Batch of 3 targets.
Target 1
Amino acid sequence: MAKAFFRLQKFLRRTQFLLFFLTAAYLMAGSLLLLQRTRLVLQQGSRGASANQALPDGIAGVGILDSRLLQNSRAGPRLLVGMDAMQEPALDQRHSPRWLVSRNSELRQLRRRWFHRFISDQEPMQTVGFKAMKPVDEHTGTYMGCFSDDSRERTLKGAVFYDLRKMTVSHCQEACAERAYAYAGLAYGAECYCGNKLPVTASKPEECNSECKGEKGSVCGGVNRLSVYRVEELRAGARRRRNVIYRGCFRAPENLTDTFPASLIQPNLTVEMCSEFCSKKEFPLAVIRGQECYCGYPTGRFSLHDSADGLLCTGMHNASGTAEGKYCLVYQTPVQDTRCTDRKFLTTKSKVFVALSSFPGAGNTWARHLIEHATGYYTGSYYFDGALYNKGFKGEKDHWRSRRTICVKTHESGKTEIEMFDSAILLIRNPYKSLMAEFNRKYAGHLGYATDRNWKSKDWPDFVNSYASWWASHVLDWLKYGKRLLIIHYEDLKQSLIPKLREMVEFLNMTVTEDRLLCVENNRDGNFKRSGAKQKDFEPFTQEMKDLINRYILTVDEALRGRNFTGLPREYVPR
């Protein structure tokens, strides 16, 4: 017995020593590997620095940019030159035609990591459809039942909100109550719909079986099913967002009763009375001619494209209106135009892989909103942005190479990244506006504004010096490596939305109806428009910054014209 015990003790000692030895060896190997990688990085850095110093005029042969060189306005566009620079005889030699080459992979990887890090930091701060509403432990609305819902014909036709992570019954009720809707409905555990009318018949209660994403044990509808609540009145002092927007004075169509589905004749008619009537009927437009109120949508017969002089609509509240009743006042009600809000993934994989490419801050999210609502299909993304996903951009979570989306958002440039796509819509925006928009997003999220302290810190000049060259190189890379391009200028899209959007839809090989495009125009802003333009009491761009940016503008303008594209809009060029 003693021998057996001694052998067991000896074996355990050997095993303990062996485990200790293996652990020590593992730690030493890891330390050596870390030291080797650190040394390699330092060597590469020193070689890069010496290579840059050896090149004339601040030109980096491997594409690594020194921020100190960027501060020298004379270096300007030359900093974008690489060893395999593209020859372009159409460009003026004053603006360095040989710098039409991609940013090096190191910079692209750094930016990509920055995007992911920033997105992950911002995601918990974002709410969807509502403004920082705290969850209510117990919802107070009256449960009306489970109702069927169809994306082509919504049961509740008012506002639509999403919170694919934190949706609760209380969130939805408060969002609808703030907009003075009578009913709040939840579907798929994460979608919220508001409205003023319910169908006559309900579905079976057990068909509403999806748990709320942010509230375990609570039911938030189901597949094509709505859990509907009658909304309680808001607490005293709570703010209603029952905004009525004046759209303008327009020539009235020849037959108003045929053009508009609902109407009301009311003595002493007011804007509030007409808007309330149309809101209850769930129409986005309220049209007033004299004592007549009409409700409807923008259509081909009444497109709201040709507004008249506002003086023609003065004194409208008489028996027949001015100018013999030929003109009418038009207001936008709080009701959302839902004729174009249905979206889905492609049923079969797309044969053409299309990019929606832009520099950050150039309106890519807005363009995605327009494309999705015009085509009825989701757009994808090279990145994953939880805030956008929660806002209803469901393609964010789909793999960017799945080909189930109509196009894929990207801010990437460079030969490898560009040649993965068969074609691309290249969205370009004034660099002054793009830089400011991206700086706001970096420090305050999608909807916020950077503080004056941010603008006056050293972060702003450093940001301009590094990102201004990226604005230029992004366009130039896509011009060089892109296989089939459609150039869209943000300013043109904003000014002539329907013609430019139709051009984009045709490029995507899709067809849409005129009414759907008018619906998109009616919902043009989406959920990511910053409220107003926050004016600063100082000029953020120094003269040195302007000199740098203006040279990039001229170079990009010449590159576009050299490839038979329309040059940059006039407002870009030197300010």
Note: Confidence is low (pLDDT under 50) at residues 37-110, 112-137, 235-239, 317-322.
Target 2
Amino acid sequence: VMASMAHLQKEKLRLQEELLELQEKLAAQENNELSLSLQLQGQVETLKAKLLEQAQEISRLRSELGGTDAEKHRDLLAAENERLRQEMKACEAELRELQRQQQAPCRDCPHLQENARLQEQLSQLQREAEETRAKLVELDLEVQQKTNRLAEVELRLKDSLAERAEEEERLSRRLRDSQETIASLKSQPQQIKYIIKTVEVESAKAKQALCETQSRNQYLQEQVGMQKQVLKEMEQQLQRSQKTEAQLRAQITMYEAELERAHGQMLEEMQAMEEEKNHAIEEAFSRAQVEMKAVHENLAGVRTNLLTLQPALRTLTHDYNNLKRQVRDFPLLLQETLRSARAEISQAIEEVHNTNRELLRKYRRELQLRKKWHNELVRLKNIRVFGRVRPITKEDGDGPEAANAVTFDADDDAVLYLLHKGKQVSFELDKVFPPQASQEEVFQEVQALVTSCIDGYNVCIFAYGQTGAGKTYTMEGTAANPGINQRALQLLFSEVRSKAADWDYTITVSAAEIYNEALRDLLGKEPQEKLEIKLCPDGSGQLYVPGLTEFRVQSVEDINKVFEFGHIKRVTECTNLNEHSSRSHALLIVTVRGLDRSTGLRTTGKLNLVDLAGSERVGRSGAEGSRLREAQHINKSLSALGDVIYALRSRQGHVPFRNSKLTYLLQDSLSGDSKTLMMVQVSPAEKNTSETLCSLKFAERVRSVELGPVSRKAELGSWPSQEHLEGDSSGSAAPPGRGHASPSPGHLSSRSASIRRKLQTSG
């Protein structure tokens, strides 16, 4: 309690010092206000001097012009100004008295905060007084301005009266001159009459004088008329001067009314300010009393609180001592806690590391198992189906028909959705590529199948879809962005080079197309020559095409030349659906023969890359004539492919492979002796949703076909030398293989030589 009392005493001393500082500031402010009031008094004296000068000027004008009503009003205004000055002096005296009362602070009052509030109220009243003084100054300035305007009006009236007097005097002189002239003229005609009477008996000379006299008389009469006209104009000018005088008097009356209105406003404002000042003083006094009473009540409450705070102070002291002991012991507790936390964190980190190592081991084992079972699934299932959606292009047009109707599952890259006739249909394939997928991404998914060709397996990759869906782009691509065909051969060359230390490989390429149900050789001399598909005579049951050109490739440059040569001879035309529509089914047959030099193991693998012609509706494509016949054959062959897929899916005893050249040529790829991949190409445009729906349903049917295990073509035996390989092709039949040529003796070497010459010329 003693400490609290000491603290209160210090607070009291600090408040007293602040009060003294505020009193000093108030004294300085009062000095400033005193100097300001002195300046105002000087300005008032100056105004008085100006008013006296104006009164003297008014007296002088009165003596010159005589007493008028305006002068009476001016006298009244001067008296009113004098009364206002006296009232202003009385207000200043009251203000000084109020300041003197406020300068005597209540030093014995202990409630210094209340004193500060009263001082703030006093400063507010002083600001109000300053505003009142400013308004008085403005009113004095307004009165002075109106007085100046009245003086200017009087000067103008004086000038106008002087001008009027001068004009009247000038007119009176001219009138007198005219009257004298008229009188003289009146006196002359009698003499002329007398002369006329006497001249009647005189001579011709007298007659001439008479004529001259008559002309002069006429001239004088004209002068008299002119003088009368001038007199009339002067009378009109006199009337105008009288009107001007009346207007000036009206202006003077208006100015007097304005002065009276300003005086009334000034009186009302002075009265309102006086009432506001008295009301503010009364309110400040009443508030001071109320606040003083509240301060006394607060002081009594503080004393009561001091008495009740003693037990609380003892409790706080005890709590403080306990906290002090806890703070002294806190570093030891903190160190112990940190040691235990570090130990727990280290143990947790070790457990996480062990868990991560175990998870990594399990992950690697799962990857191996996944790869193993994936290969087993491919071996057992045989046919895999990938889907690829092309982007919206300018050929799709604008408007609702070009809207995107295909969406994808963000969590599953094997599912896509098609919006058809307001309903969303879902399809599940082995893999789905969105429009933004690149050629490289597509090939990464199929390159495992391509490399298995080197190990002696038969592989077939074919693209299916409506016309304009992007099948040729996926399979062939462009020069800057090649497709599966060229990338597959490049990959084969890369794998052959990596195994060159132990293996010898030979890669041969054949290209054919099925146009209007006729099989044609794209690398032969006569591309219009029709070829037939036959069974191999060795009894293996596999198919070959007699007369189909087989060209050996040894580098990427050879591949480019083969592709260019075959692309030139392939049939493409422009339709309403596709500017470069493929009108035939294109087949690229790649045969890879290998020999293990250490064991003598020979392998033969074939890679069939098929670019099917697009299905189309004749009504939409606008096909006519030969284009119509081509479309009919294309749709017939694709329908036969659908029948084969249905028969395989339903496990029928008879599969109609021979219904079409296309299905007959793909018999080995679809009968379980090949790893087969179908790339279904679809368009996302709204106008193509019917064709897209048909393509995706066909893809699901193909995906459900399960074939037997794939066999590897490998046998032990001696492998001929490189020279024997190049020369033996003309003396012996080619080894049997699915979809591959087995030319007659002597035919292969001549055909290959001619192809080499053509490629060298085109290169």
Note: The chain is about 65% helix and 15% strand.
Target 3
Amino acid sequence: LILLCISGMKAETARYSVPEEGEIGSFVANIAKDLGLTGEELSARRARLVPDVEKQYLQLNQHTGDLVVREQMDREELCGQSEPCLVHFEVLLESPLQSFRAEVRLIDINDHAPVFLNKEIVLKVPESAMPETRFLLESAQDPDVGNNSLQHYSISSNEYFHVYTRQRNDGRRYAELVLNRALDREQQAEVAFSITAVDGGTPPRSGTALIRVVVLDINDNSPIFTRSVYKVSVKENSSQDVVVVVVSASDLDSGTNGEVAYSIFQNSEENLETFKINTGTGQIRLKKTLDYEEAKSYEIDVQATDGGGLSAHCKVEVQVEDVNDNAPEVIITSLTRTLSEASPPNTVVALFNVRDRDSGDNGRTTCELAGEQPFSISLLAADAYALVTSEALDREQVAEYNVTVRARDKGSPELSLSKTLLVQLLDVNDNAPIFTQDIYTMVISENEPAGTSLGRLRATDADTGENARVRYAIEVPSPGTPAAASFMSVDVDSGTVRALHPLDYEKVPAFELVVRASDSGSPSLSTQAVLCIVVQDQNDNSPVVLHPPPDSSAAGELVPRWAPSGYLVAKVVAVDADAGQNAWLSYELAKATEPGLFRVGLHSGEVHTARAVMERDSPRQRLIVLVRDRGQPPRSTTATLAVTLVHDFSDAFLQQDHEPASREQPQAADDDLLTTYLIASLGCVSSLFVLSVLTLATAKLCKARLQAHLSPPSPSCYTDGDFVGDGVDVTGMGTLSPAYRYEVCLTTGSGRSEFQFLRPVL
């Protein structure tokens, strides 16, 4: 149905008329009524006028459908003498695309009066001229056409002449002066009167010139042309000064009366500007090149005058032959320089006409596009075209197009003309941002202050302007998931990732975030990427000793006196909460009672004897083991080991029983007070030794006296059952096994509160 409507539109041409030089805004016609549409439909379908010429003289009111004058039109300026004078245009409707041709005829008004080129016309007439002799007069010029053009001539009253108005083949009128009666130079040598040219307008306009008739003495013979009408054809591309035709006239008189001079009779200013004649030979040449498109023919009046003043006239008809000298013209009537990349196919980009001023095949044209581009040409009407999109557009691939429209004619040789139209594509938000990486990995050292920059996210958007302005954000985690997003922030514009507060490697060694890049288009498009944060460990934790416990009240480790070199005494166990090199531990003996007696494994922490234990070695040894990590700077801690040198397990028990308080002594002493303590201890030991000798001697004497008064002892052994409830538990002390029990034998008459281990009961 649409195609049928369009073809119907193209087939008929709407015709309107308007007087020339109408006022701006003058009503011409109602387009909506002729199309059968309402003003609302015209507005909805974006009706517009597309003129055939670059200048737009008419305007369409989309709301009412009225066609009005936009700019005054001068018919003579637009069309000259051509009639009818038509202004062609097209009415273009969209949704769907329709067009129909229309034309407005400019009705001539009588706005020009006839004008004589010469205000004074001199005519030489011999006194022998017979009545009814006719003399050709210069024509008056009137640019109007039809009835408004020149219609007739009249002269002022005189007794010798009257005027006769005649019409040429092209419709122009000219005047012939007719002699009423014979002239007598002796009576009146000159006759003067006025001639008036009148047009047919309402009211009529006129122009006047003065005619002076000079009466000449008698000359028997007038010049006679060989032909009254010369017909010749000249190609429009003929060069200047080329001979068009040679006219010839002869005079039977002799002497000066028989000498003929040729001249072009001034019947139009255009003829005088285009042609020239050799007064002696009669050769008519071109003064300028001809243009078939401006004038297709010329009619020249040639006058031959002899020496006596007699003259004759002939007519030269010049037909201009068209040649293919005009290339087609591409006239852009409507152009959309910016086009959305989302425009669908068949979107109108430009409307243009192709015109060739030549005729025939020289004026027949074709139109095409140069190169492969997403555009095509659609024929709307004769020589009227639309440039439309042929496929989907993508600004990201091609941002602008230079569309070259080439028009060719069918002349020989073929002429063509190209016109380039710049079409720029407007961006739409059809591309989401793209991260340069799917996964970003950033490293931050633990304990870095808040605001520390880790790096920068980067996403690009193929769009432009606001559609390409990328904003960054961290996705809000779903409820129930770790709030890792609270550790980091992303600058919305630059994508810089910063820490919100210091991180602890021991608590969070690494975590992942989902980041989003969104553009500023409407609607906004976005994409996601994964951000992996790796916390780099720093040496912020000192080693922690697991064994021996720092608050242990045990006596320590037991080493037999017979222990050889390399004997395993104990193992120091420590851990470091850091990772990597910061958690690699080394052990060394920092201080010992006997520095040469023990050694510590550098990496194992095992304490071995460095040599065999000797009797002179102190039974109680105190070792301080330094545990150090390999961080920068390194961190360390110490472990204190109490080692007891024993002969056997009973010796170890006695030492534990007699000197229980020794375990309660502080395991670490101040290095600065050690010397003082040693001196004080030496004095005390010396005093105690003397006191002990005295006490022992006294005790021996007392014991001998008591034995003399007491009965002899009866030995008695306590069996295993007697110590069921009161056995000594040595579990957990030193290195004795909890599975050992011992038999104890006491004498009834013993005066000492002591016992001895005899043998273990396995």
Note: The two ends are 119 Å apart (CA to CA).
